[in-house]
């Protein structure tokens, strides 16, 4: 399992207004450094970097952010997908 990377420069918090989902503040210098460090990931993802904002399980009023990593899917060949296809009595 990959290590989870938390964005310690990003501070999401709940809003007092119901139409605002969350207020986010961040340390600009640290965020720029993180973006520079992850430039290759952004280029591989059409210029985008993603992160999740999660609610703490112990305190629903606390939020935190972590880097989103899409699960890597190994390509599946047709033979692996339907191993009995070669021996099956197909009508065509």
* Rg result: 21 Å
H/E topology pattern: EEHHEEH
What structural category arises from helix and sheet content?
A: alpha+beta
Q: Based on CA inertia axes, which overall geometry fits?
A: elongated
Largest sheet: 2 strands, antiparallel
Biggest sheet: strand arrangement? 1-2
Strand content: 15-25%
Mean of residue pLDDT values: 85
Give a description of the structure.
The chain has 92 residues and is α+β, with helices and mostly antiparallel strands. It has one domain. It has 3 helices and 4 strands. The protein has helices at residues 28-37, 39-44, 78-81; strands spanning 10-13, 23-26, 51-55, 63-67. A two-stranded antiparallel ribbon has the order 1-2. A two-stranded antiparallel ribbon has the order 3-4. A hairpin with a 7-residue loop joins strand 3 and strand 4. The longest helix has 10 residues, at 28-37. The protein is elongated, with a radius of gyration of 21 Å. It starts with 9 loop residues before the first strand and ends in an 11-residue tail after the last helix.
Keywords:
92 residues, alpha+beta, two-stranded antiparallel sheet, 3 helices
